[in-house]
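[Automated response] Your request has been received and processed.

Submitted sequence:
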Amino acid sequence: MQITPEVKAQLEEQKKQCVFCKLISGEMEAKKVFEDNIVIGMLDIYPAKKGHVLYMLKEHYPIMPYIPPDEFKHFFGLVPKVCGAIKEGLVTTGANLFIANGFVAGQKAAHFLANVFPRDNGDGFFNFLFKLRDNTLTEEQIKMLGHNFPLMMNNHFTRNPAEWHKGKGEVPNFLKEIYESSIPIYEDEKVLCILPNKELIGGHIEIYSKLEEKFIEKLSIEDSSHLFFTASFAATALFEGLKAQGTNIILKSGFSDDNKEGKLCVHVLPRSENDGLQGMMWEPKPPKDELDVVLKKIKEEVWKIKYVEEKKVEEKKREPEVIKIKVEKKESSSDEIRKALERIKN
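Generated structure:
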């Protein structure tokens, strides 16, 4: 989204009143887990569960479409390392990342952020335990999403060419059953996007990595950022095509009560008022665990969170092979006469 001078002025006014901007600047005290020049993570002081981290950009953007591409890549490229550090610090088997775009989707403040939760089997956190139903989209809606979403991705690659992108790529064995039992609406070499036959709500899109079956922390910076670029365009397709009033983006990774098979999947959900999905949200409550103890455990692992651009390996230019051509010296007539006289004498 192009930010005009008028919008920039509005954002500057928002920043003055933004609680998260004050926490980031140090004007208000925060339990910072880690930070670099672009992003910051801090413990939620009223956590939904133990280890609940608020992961956000330092710059003030109200919703995902406002984020510039380079900051978007930095933010989502670090998600694997953020989830990995929290999981290892608290010794858990899974992780969730939850994003609310828009008030009806549960966004509480005008500062874009992601909620990160370490997860375990039996942890009692059932907010993302989906009660699925048969797909309710009409044929026309399915056709529209299957047409518009790939167009958006093609435009994305036109603006941001990727050397690895040539087409659809292959569907890995661990995704073939999902591919065959659902409605694929987009795929490339790194992701598969489907409309599942069993959905939480009409327009529910699932995005799978073709490169990793279970754990987000195994993806590279580029692979993770592409996974979430795709999720962002899926959300836009739902806004424009289904007239959604908001969207949720929910990452499930590893094993928990709501992810028994441990599959790595990003769920994109269209939201509207009174859609029945309010149960995903949580009420702020005082923490049951000592926050400083939790903070210490996570901070022991955050040294691993570092954004390193993947360098392109340039092929060394091969010097053309010099082929030496032996040119035989042609004998003169005098040489020929001399040799003939020598033969006669002998």
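Summary generated for your ticket: The longest helix spans residues 221-242. Confidence is low (pLDDT under 50) at residues 313-318, 320-330.
If you did not submit this request, please reply to this message.
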